[in-house]
Recover the amino acids of this structure.
């Protein structure tokens, strides 16, 4: 099951593609003659979803997420970005923690609605941290203080690379094999794991690299960035295939 394809495949190009919501940043941006606040997302997320067989739908962090938004999706990808507000897991902000409270409000509700609706969910970087906090876990606010190095942070505007060793018996291990060459860019990490989740991969330094919810249609959080590695789409293809299956079930029920 750990081949570069996967046991989950879309049947052919004629199969209707699932609609995948991708959360976005709300940040200052410059383009052309404009210098303004924008809803933005690294384009390699978009390319990754398209390459894996989905239709990417960008979701700006506006107000509070609503059920009708989730009803139009077949899957949800929680993308990277700013730190989660520490009060959400009972902590005070540490030096270097930076947050976007409006984005937290939108995405925590979006995640709750998507999970309640049974949508396949993939969390990336900030996304794994949001999943863990939303389900009752905590975060390490500055990982280098815990492990004594900054390999996970990567250089400015680029990724560090670490080895993630998967946990036998997990979905992540079944799809990705015993090890993943993980592209990462983060200074925070999962601390105490939420009760309903299990650790699916760890870095060689012991920090948590993946979690999953046993029994869920597809609920996986990755601390690394799969969009940074076009050569390995195994986990993303599995996510898209789960979303496609969900789409067929919903369509059949209408």
């Amino acid at each position: 099951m750990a081949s570069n394809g996967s046991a989950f495949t879309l049947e052919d190009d004629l199969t209707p593609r699932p609609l995948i919501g991708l959360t976005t940043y709300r940040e200052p941006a410059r383009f052309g003659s404009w210098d303004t606040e924008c809803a933005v997302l690294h384009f390699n997320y978009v390319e990754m979803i398209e390459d894996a067989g989905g239709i990417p739908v960008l979701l700006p962090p506006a107000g509070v997420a609503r059920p009708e938004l989730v009803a139009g999706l077949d899957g949800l990808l929680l993308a990277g970005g700013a730190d989660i507000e520490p009060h959400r897991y009972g902590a005070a902000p540490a030096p270097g923690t930076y947050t976007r409270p409006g984005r937290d409000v939108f995405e925590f509700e979006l995640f709750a609605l998507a999970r309640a609706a049974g949508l396949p969910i993939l969390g990336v970087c900030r996304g794994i941290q949001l999943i863990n906090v939303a389900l009752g876990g905590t975060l390490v606010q500055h990982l280098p203080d815990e492990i004594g190095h900054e390999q996970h942070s990567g250089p400015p505007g680029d990724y560090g690379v670490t080895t993630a060793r998967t946990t036998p018996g997990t979905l992540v291990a079944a799809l990705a094999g015993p090890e993943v060459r993980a592209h990462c860019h983060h200074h925070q990490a999962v601390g105490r794991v939420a009760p309903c989740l299990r650790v699916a991969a760890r870095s060689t330094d012991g920090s948590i690299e993946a979690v999953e919810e046993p029994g869920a249609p597809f609920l996986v959080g990755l601390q690394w960035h799969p969009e940074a590695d076009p050569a390995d789409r195994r986990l993303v293809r599995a996510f898209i295939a789960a979303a496609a299956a969900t789409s067929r079930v919903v369509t059949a029920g209408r």
Notes: DSSP finds seven helices and 13 strands in the chain. The longest strand covers residues 25-31. Helices lie at 43-51, 67-71, 101-116, 126-134, 143-147, 171-176, 234-253. The CA atoms of residues 26 and 39 lie 5 Å apart.
